Structure formats: structure tokens, C-alpha cells
Amino acid sequence: MGVAVLLKQVPDTTAKISVSGSRVDESAITKWAISPYDEYALESAVALKESGMDELVAITCGPQRASKCLTEAASVGADRLIHILTDADFMDSCTLQSILSSAIQRSGCDIVLCGKQAADTNSGSTGPGVASLLGYTCVGSVTEISMDGGKISATRLGNTGLEKIEVAGPCVFTFDKGEVELRRPNVRGIMMAKKKPIESIGTKELGIEIGSPKASLKSHFSPPEKPPGQKFEGAGSIEIVVGKLRDEANVI
Amino acid sequence: MDITIISEANNDSLHPVTAQMVGAASSIGGPISVICPGGFGSVEAAKIAGVSKVISVEGDCFDSYDSMAWSGAIEPFIEGDLVLTSSSTLGREISSAIAAKKGFPVVQDITSLNDGISVTRSIFSGKAIEEVEVSVPCALSIRANAFQPAEVGGEAAISTVNVSQQVSVAVKEALAKAGERLDVAEADIVISGGRGMGNPSNFSHLYELADEIGAAVGASRAAVDTWEEIPHSMQVGQTGKTVTPNLYIAVGISGAIQHLAGMRSSKYILAINKDPEAPIFGVADYGIVATWEESIPALKEHLSAIMSD
User: Which residues contact A212 (CB under 8 A, 6 or more apart)?
Assistant: First the structure.
């Protein structure tokens, strides 16, 4: 039984996002990284592989630069790297999820790990959407996972609190940030990863015809700038500020 | 256009976001039906003005949470071309699963909805905003407190259906109950502490103040990463929660770009920091250069005096 991890490359969370010509200016972004929640999924996928799963397959969908995610995944233990090459700056959920489901099916994995949402789009549609298309179970907001026999147990933040759950059969787990320490690759891992081949495939090879989009991006814009605020010195000014919160801002 | 709303429950009762979904739907126009998963809040849902019918979908599968079982149980009762949920974790999972099953596109966490259909939503946790055009049929999840709620005053008929659905997620053990405290994503007032609080036990001062004024307590990423006593569920910012309260009070938070992204859309921001150069002052409506030790007692005194008036 194999485990697949879905990785998305996003601007590093410390990056400043600027908009030019009604699009986020990608050329101003100097550092790209694996989306933070996906890193937790990757760490857990490596741990699952160490506890006896056959193969760890890392999958990404995106432009050429995204292949760096896969090499990073290989440096901590991914066995196979699949890159679905696309250049679209925006993809509707139907198209993206059919691409990813088809790649997962091709990989033969019935356990899939990914972040609960990506740090750029902040949506969280991919995990449950892909599970739905594949007919897999889906468990969200997972912070820990382990395998015992054929069954997988996980800790998730459910509606009523933190729960330990168990799933038998094919499943997509979406990851939250937990207590798990992320491992750093060692030098040997980094060297080996550089040599690991990346299977680059187009959407056509996956049997996906990209038709007219069901959702399209009209524009990006920056959040409205706030006028400069009022600044006070010392805790003695708190009475004045609290008065302003009531009389000017009307929020208390 | 026929619109189907999947209600959000707060334990056994209806979550206020449900009336906001009806408000958002009314701006599009067309008959509105509300599906109540597990039957929670169906009586309240029927009383929201503008709702034409309520379907209470009940069954054993709603005893614990399995997103695929829930969406499988709900899906046959969706007649609308526009499906609305809340953008809570549950709302996003249910809308994604249903959209995928039906071949609808889904757009999450929208903050405005216009005929057409065109929506806006924040991306990069608030560093930018995008406008997306969506074809119908589609599914959308709406951000809490972004839409005017519909009024109370309806009398929709409630039909109850019993469903059975296979559940694949077995709950083995409840490890910790959901926090008794207000969630930062839902509160009207949020007080957050950063590493400037010195050590995690000092957060008790923030909790005391929060209890006094009915606020939720949040934290910066630096605080969450440094102190294991501060859980990730409190984290405000790009890898935590995006919040839009009426009042956000930042104490001992310098204002890293990830943090600013998650809170800058708050209606009013009060920042307290001893460093006059802290970037947090750049987004604050009111800034006070002072230590938390001096400020919190004074805040508590003056806020509780005003709020008990």
C-alpha cells in the first residue's frame, strides 16, 4: 500500500504580496516554498512510510518552478516524484481536482495526505474534493497519524474537540499544524534527491481535457490602505484611548 | 435561481451565520431552501424571513463527523443551482465534497456576492483580494460576519427525511473537549498576545481581561512557536486564523507580516507595544507605547467601567 502526498508551491509566508496590473506580481516574489500545512502532511507521510508503507509518492501540480517541492520531498524520503505541468495562473476547483485525482489513481496510492488549505488561496477545497471524486473517506484537520495493521489512526480537531479516530480503507487526510517536529534533510538526502528523476506529465496524458473554465479570475487587488492611526505615549493614555474606542470607533 | 443553503449548527442550535447565508442568498433572489444536517436548528431556520422551505435531514450518520457520509446524506436533497455553506472547517469540507460530486465549481470564504455570479475573497490571508467570476451551478462558502443577516419572521414548512449512510470514520476516543473559550475567528473583540508577554503564564492576564469584556484570546505565531502552552488554535496570521473582529487588541506583538495579514481587516485595531518602532503601529488605529504590565490593569479598569455602564 502506497501513500501519496500532495504538495503546493506558494510564496514564502514572509513574502510581501504586491499587485500590478490587477494581478499579483509574481516576479516580485523572491522565495517560494512548500505550503506550510503541506509540510506537515509531508512529515507525516514520511513517518507512515517508515512505519511500513510500501512507497511514498509526492505529487505537485503547477509551473516548472514547482518541481523544487518534489526535490525537497525526495530529500526527506519521497520515492517517486510526479509533476503535473500547468501554466494556468488560476484553475477552477473542478479542473484541479480532476487532475489530482487522476494522478493519484495513476500512482496507485489509496492513502493521500495534504495540507488542510494552501497558504496562497486559503481555500481548503482540494482534500475533500479529491476524496469525493475518488470515492475515498476524508478526515480533516489532522495533527497526528499512525498505522497499525491495515488500519490508520489519526488525531483530528473535530467539531466537538480533539478526537482520536480510526479509518480502514482508502482515505484522504488533510493536515493542520500540530506538535510534530518537521525534519530537516541531511546532506546525503539532499545529494540523492538531486539525482532523483521527476516524472513530468501533461494534463492530456492524464486524460484531462481542459474545457471552458467554470470559475475565472477577474482581478487581484490590494486591501484598502488604512489612514494613519493615532499614537499615544505611556499607559496613562489608556483612559483617553478607551474613551475613543467608545466615542469615535463605537466598538465597545 | 433556486438556492440551497446548508445550515451551520452551534451544538443543537442554529449558528448565526445561517441567517447571514439567507441574507446573502436574498441579494441574488429566487426560492431559498435550507437543509439542516442532523436536524439541528431546523425550527429556528424555518423562522428566518425569506426561507421557503426547510429540510431536516436526520440519521445515525450525524452522530459523529464523517464529511463524506454527511455530504452523501445531504446531496440528494439539493435542488438549487447555487449551494451555500458557511466557511467554517465543516462548511468548507461539505461544500467541497458536494461540489465535486455534482461537478460544480466551489469558491470558499467569500466576503461579497454579486449577480452574475461574481464574488470577492481574500487571498494570502488578507495580503490581497481576488475577484472571481463563477458559472452557475456552483457552490460557495461564505465568511461569517461578512453579510447582513436576514431578519427573523418567516414561517417555512419543515419536512423531515430519514437517511442512512455508511460511516467510515470511527471515533475511538475524545482527547480534549473543544475550548470553552470563544474562538478568535468568531469573536467581536479579540485580544492577542505576542512574545512581548515574556512568558506563557502571563497570558492569564489576557484571559482575565477577555473574560471581563467577552473577548476571545489570540496569539502571534512567535508566541505559539515559542511556548507549547499556547495552542495553534489561538494563532492569528497566515498559518493560523484570519480574523475580522470589530476590535482587535494586540499586546506585545511586534507585527510580523504574517500576523498583519491575518488581522489587518479588523474594523479597529488597538496596539500596545513598548517599542515605538514596532511595525504593528503601522496598521493600528490607536497605538499606545507602553509595557503590557502597565497597560493591562489600566485597560481592565477602564474597559470594564465603560462596558458595565
Answer: none
Is residue B179 domain-resident? no
* Contact status, residue B117 vs residue B142, Cβ threshold 8 Å: no
Which among B167, B169, B268 is the top mutation candidate for probing chain A, defined by the most A β-carbons within 10 Å of its own β-carbon?
B169
Quick one: what percent of chain B has pLDDT higher than 90?
Answer: 85
Angle at the Cα of B179 from the Cα atoms of B256 and B300, rounded to 5 degrees? 65
Examine the domain organization and report whether B125 and B197 are in the same domain: no
Give the domain range for residue B211.
189-307
Q: In this complex, do B290 and A216 lie within 8 Å of one another by their Cβ atoms?
A: no
pLDDT at B179 over 70: no
Give the domain extent around A49.
2-201
Does the residue B63 lie in any domain?
Answer: yes
DSSP of B93-148, one letter per residue? HHHHHHHHHHT--EEEEEEEEETTTEEEEEEGGGTEEEEEEEPSSEEEEE-TTSSP
Domain count, chain A: 1
Report if residue B56 sits inside a domain: yes
Q: Containing H/E element for B214?
A: none
Q: Which residues pair with A163 in a beta bridge?
A: A156, B174
Which ipTM score applies to this complex? 0.94
Q: A226 and B285: CB-CB below 8 Å?
A: yes
Whether A138 sits inside 8 A of B67 (CB atoms) is: yes
- For position A189, which CATH number holds? 3.40.50.620
Q: What is the pTM of this model?
A: 0.91
Q: CATH no. for residue B253?
A: 3.40.50.1220
Inter-residue contact A116 to A124 (CB < 8 Å): yes
Measured CA to CA in angstroms, residue B100 lies from A117, B46, B120 at distances of 16, 28, 21
Section B92-106 average pLDDT: 98
